[in-house]
Amino acid sequence: MIAWQLAADLTALGQYVCGPFTTLEAASAFDGPLDGAIVDIGIGSERSFAFASRLLEQGVAVVFYSGSAGEPLAGGLERVPRCAKPAPTSQLLETLRRQQAGRRQRRMRVLQRLPAWRHMARDICGDYKLADHILELAMERAIRHYETSPPEAGEDPDQWLRQEVSALFGDWRRQRMV
User: Fold this and answer.
1) Secondary structure tally for the chain: helices H, strands E
2) Which of 71, 120, 131, 155 can pair with 151 through a Cys bridge, CB separation 3.0 to 4.6 Å?
3) Domain co-membership, 28 together with 77
4) CA distance 148 to 146
5) Do both 73 and 9 map to the same domain?
6) Helix 157-177 and helix 128-148: axis angle, to 10°?
7) Which domain of life is it from (predicted)?
8) 64 contact partners, CB below 8 Å, separation of at least 6
9) Vertex 156: Cα angle to 153 and 157 (nearest 5)
10) Rounded distance, CA 170 to CA 124, Å?
11) Quick one: 6 and 83 in the same domain?
């Protein structure tokens, strides 16, 4: 009942709503574009954690909306904001918009840092083509690393990437010497 009212309220606020879905199977079957999702922790008798994780992997902003607001979250979901039922629709929409804005800002910060990372890799490697290749490998490792373990407070991604580039370049040099 709350989901249907929320959908009506969001629609009245000018949002395009593709739900609510009453099962995880139905929600997972939706293949249209999504900017954001308001997800209940419990959908029927199922938990929505794996579903929410897939949405996050696809770059969709997620907000948990649940009567189980105190339930502990794991697997990278600790940072997903939660709103306890019943929360005003405006609060849910604002929370979702903050998530979307945060994702856009993080993407922009990465794009703005690419030239500096490329310069750093070229300083370490000396050879431009090799540096670009090693930087690409280091960034793939960074993506896998941060997907499985979110950055800790105070962790410097630039320093982490520099260490990866240096390690990969060292591996490359050792392989050439053998």
Assistant:
1) 6, 5
2) 155
3) yes
4) 5
5) yes
6) 130
7) Bacteria
8) 39, 40, 41, 52, 73, 80, 81, 82, 83
9) 115
10) 10
11) yes
- pTM above the 0.90 mark? no
All residues at 6 or more sequence positions from 118 whose CB lies less than 8 Å from its CB, including other chains = 131, 132, 135
The pair of three-digit structure tokens given for residue 164, joined into one six-digit string: 């990866």
Amino acid at 133: H
Question: Distance between CA 169 and CA 177 in Å, rounded?
Answer: 13
Which of the listed residues 87, 121, 148 is the one where a domain comes to its end? 87
Distance CA 175, CA 148 (A): 29
| Alpha-helix runs per DSSP H in 13-154 | 24-29, 49-57, 89-125, 128-148
Total length of the chain:
178
- 6-59: pLDDT as tens digits: 777 777 877 777 777 888 888 888 887 777 888 888 787 888 888 888 888 777
Any long-range contacts for 111-115 (C-beta under 8 Å, 24+ apart)?
113/158
Helix (H) or strand (E) holding 65: strand 61-66
